[in-house]
Design goal:
The chain has two domains: about 100 residues, no CATH class; about 130 residues, no CATH class. Helix content is about 60%, strand content about 5%. The chain has about 290 residues and is mostly helical. The protein contains nine helices and four strands. A two-stranded parallel ribbon has the order 1-2. A two-stranded antiparallel ribbon has the order 3-4. The longest helix has 25 residues.
Length: about 290
């Protein structure tokens, strides 16, 4: 604690691309902090926990089938190697939990916090439902190794058997109706972690008034002066402020001046594609500086 900055490496050599990503991260971070300050983030409930766990269980089932189909079960040597990897991964996790419990919990909480924030849920570590989610997250990681072993040992268990095993342990009522999962065969020894997005319905950012009224998101051009002024208060270099202002002007030219709540990922991709193709320092070059982007 006590840090006033968070530094991340973008691991990219293209300056324009890095600047786009950095500005996007800044805006996202400011919105998150604003939500915290205004108390807009909701406390996690049991129903939220169940929704998150349903997705994680489906991901786990898909992952173990990737592992199953990616193992050459017709070779005793390959089969033994795959089972050994399962046992080794399980032992590593149990060792970390025994020897560095707090550090392991911190890593798992970090995974969970990212998911909660995307769903506008507050990652409150004092919340009992949050603590329950962390515990079950760990249990699922361990149980998943058992499921892999069962499948490779041809136990005959199905996805429904695995779900019933979890329901017996957790007693949460995750599945009122059972649905079949479609499985995708993969090449040998390939077992990726499947990704299933945590979908959040987009909502417009609103401005609160004293009498409780709301207004649509402000235009992008309306929030630019506030950001530039914040940079000046933070004693950022004038050159940096000027570059930021020019970036925002480019955004308005290329993808339009819209309410900030209406910008989409597609807008970001279109801007990135367009800006990379432009000559560097175009505003300083006589042959380009008087031209518009469009």
């Amino acid at each position: 604690m006590g840090k006033s900055q968070i530094r991340l490496s973008l691991k990219h050599s293209d300056y324009c691309y890095s600047k786009i990503v950095a500005n996007s991260l800044y805006i996202i971070a400011q919105n998150i902090f604003e939500d915290f300050r205004n108390g807009n983030m909701k406390d996690i409930t049991l129903e939220d926990v169940k929704n998150i766990l349903r997705i994680e269980v489906r991901k786990s089932l898909l992952h173990i089938h990737h592992y199953q189909y990616g193992t050459n079960v017709f070779s005793k040597v390959k089969l033994k190697e795959s089972i050994s990897r399962i046992e080794e991964n399980e032992k590593k996790l149990r060792d970390r939990l025994e020897n560095d419990y707090k550090g392991t919990i911190d890593l798992i909480e970090n995974e969970i916090d990212k998911i909660l924030i995307t769903q506008n849920l507050e990652p409150n570590k004092k919340n009992v439902e949050y603590k329950g989610l962390v515990r079950r997250w760990i249990e699922l990681k361990l149980i998943r190794q058992d499921w892999k072993r069962d499948l490779l040992n041809e136990s005959g268990k199905t996805d429904e058997d695995f779900k019933i095993e979890l329901e017996t342990k957790w007693k949460l009522g995750l599945w009122k109706t059972c649905e079949e999962e479609k499985l995708t065969p993969v090449i040998e020894n390939y077992a990726p972690e499947p990704i299933e997005p945590y979908i959040v319905k987009p909502k417009s950012i609103e401005v609160k008034y004293n009498k409780g009224q709301t207004a649509p998101s402000p235009l992008f051009s309306e929030i630019i002066p506030n950001h530039l002024e914040l940079m000046r208060r933070n004693k950022r270099r004038e050159e940096t402020i000027g570059e930021t202002e020019q970036t925002y002007e480019d955004v308005k030219e290329l993808i339009g001046d819209k309410p900030i709540g209406e910008y989409t990922n597609l807008d970001g991709r279109n801007y990135r594609t367009a800006i990379i193709s432009l000559p560097k320092n175009r505003k300083k070059m006589k042959q380009y500086r008087d031209f518009n982007l469009l």
